[in-house]
Design goal:
Length: about 450
């Protein structure tokens, strides 16, 4: 075999065999196949796709390019959640401690933000001292001690994916469904889980902007998870406006803490309870989704979920004093209010525009080595459907970056559209995807 023949075969629509896929993946990891040939393979795959068999084999090879963590010594059914990402998507922060407080171990390996979407690791690292870079042994110790751990991808876990993802990002091949499925599932299957819940987003602020593509991706992810013996459920959820009111790393931590301490922010808590209920159900601590949701609500109301989050932060080196007293956190140099351009109702809030505005002020990155300003962000005062009067504050921009402040504020202002009547919305959670197929979601 040689890379040129394999690239040509995929370019012409052929189905690659396991040895051919292994040749490409092993060669890229070892450096015997250069970036430019791997980029050609990725682009050929982007246009030609993969069969179900190819996608499963691709995932298996990516998974076994590194270590597969064994958590069998830890009692209980280990369950994780993965989101395909969105603006203001801080759901992992309240979700993981809520599920752990229900008695389900949650081993979570998360990613950084890239492009317009935020990353769980960046949010956690905005907490002074919080360590997301743990060894596999430390990872095992933390989950054994407190029932939840949240770290970044290590060198040992799916190294082929870690290297290939960076190349996908700079070759415009990120949105390829087989490549997304292989990337997500190779990491999740390697972290030692027994079951998985997926949040596949669709809409203006999602990578899968059309519902149809989101459904194809969700179906592929569920099929792969189940084929590896991990019970997998996906929910397709709407991502047209940010989740909650905070966009930006520390701002999102504060909002998550507020939710854990009992503040009801409707879209955040609706999604958190649905995903959490499914995790608790898969973890054997509830008979069905409805009971799982009630268990999650109970641990929030009792304070157990917040105490679990404090324990996690403290165990991974974070300063819990900032959680208890967020007003002591350093403030941005600038705070700019964005005001309503007319009276009426907020028609929509463009999460994609807000995501790009966040990048401009340092809340996100366009390159892996960009430096994040944890204080920077946008706090919404109004969301779609809210009534407004002319000149009323609809958002506040927080930034240190003088040069980016004005253009970012203008972009935030453009993200708001106005209407004479309140708009109507579809459900936040649209569909459920499991081994029985796709069904409209309802409790």
């Amino acid at each position: 075999m040689n890379a040129n023949e394999i690239i040509r075969k995929k370019r012409d629509g052929g189905e690659l065999t396991r040895p051919e896929l292994q040749y490409v993946i092993d060669g890229y990891v070892k450096g015997t196949i250069p970036d430019y040939q791997t980029a050609a393979f990725l682009m050929a795959t982007y246009f030609r796709g993969m069969t179900d068999a190819e996608t499963s084999e691709f995932t298996r090879l990516m998974l076994h390019s590194g270590d597969v963590v064994d958590l069998s010594h830890i009692a209980g059914i280990k369950v994780d959640k993965h989101s395909t990402g969105g603006v203001g998507d801080k759901i992992s922060l309240p979700l993981a401690p809520i599920v752990a407080a229900c008695g389900v171990p949650v081993p979570m390996i998360s990613g950084r933000g890239l492009g317009h979407t935020g990353g769980t690791l960046d949010k956690l690292e905005s907490i002074p001292g919080f360590k997301t870079s743990l060894s596999i042994d430390e990872y095992k110790e933390v989950i054994a001690e407190i029932g939840v751990v949240m770290i970044g991808q290590t060198q040992e876990i799916a190294p082929a994916d870690k290297k290939m993802y960076s190349l996908r990002d700079v070759t415009s091949t990120v949105e390829c469904i087989p490549l997304i499925a292989g990337s997500i599932m190779s990491k999740k299957l390697a972290e030692g889980i027994d079951a998985l819940v997926l949040d596949v987003k669709t809409g203006r602020g999602a990578f899968m902007q059309s519902y149809e593509r989101a459904e194809v991706l969700a179906t592929a992810l569920v099929r792969i998870g189940n084929s590896f013996g991990k019970e997998t459920i996906a929910f397709i959820t709407r991502m047209d406006e940010p989740l909650g009111y905070a966009v930006g790393n520390w701002l999102e931590v504060v909002e998550s803490v507020d939710c854990l301490r009992g503040k009801h922010i409707p879209d955040i808590m609706e999604l958190t309870y649905v995903l959490g209920g499914a995790m608790v159900m898969l973890g054997g601590k509830a008979a069905d989704l409805r009971e799982g949701i009630e268990r999650c609500k109970e641990v929030v109301a009792s304070g157990a979920a917040y105490e679990k989050f404090r324990a996690l932060v403290k165990r991974q080196g974070g300063d819990v004093a900032f959680l208890d007293h967020p007003e002591t956190y350093p403030r941005s140099k600038h705070e700019v209010e964005i005001t309503a351009r007319r009276a009426g109702f907020i028609g929509s809030v463009d999460s994609l525009e807000l995501g790009f505005a966040g990048i401009m002020i340092g809340a996100g990155r366009t390159k892996v080595d960009d430096v994040i300003d944890p204080k920077a962000g946008i706090l919404l005062r109004k969301k779609a459907g809210d009534s407004v009067v002319l000149g009323e504050t609809v958002a506040t921009v927080y930034a240190d970056n003088d040069a980016a402040l004005v253009p970012a504020a203008e972009r935030v202002a453009r993200a708001f559209s106005y209407a004479d009547t309140a708009p109507e919305f579809g459900p936040l959670v649209i569909s459920r995807v499991d081994g029985d197929g796709v069904q409209p979601f309802h409790l």
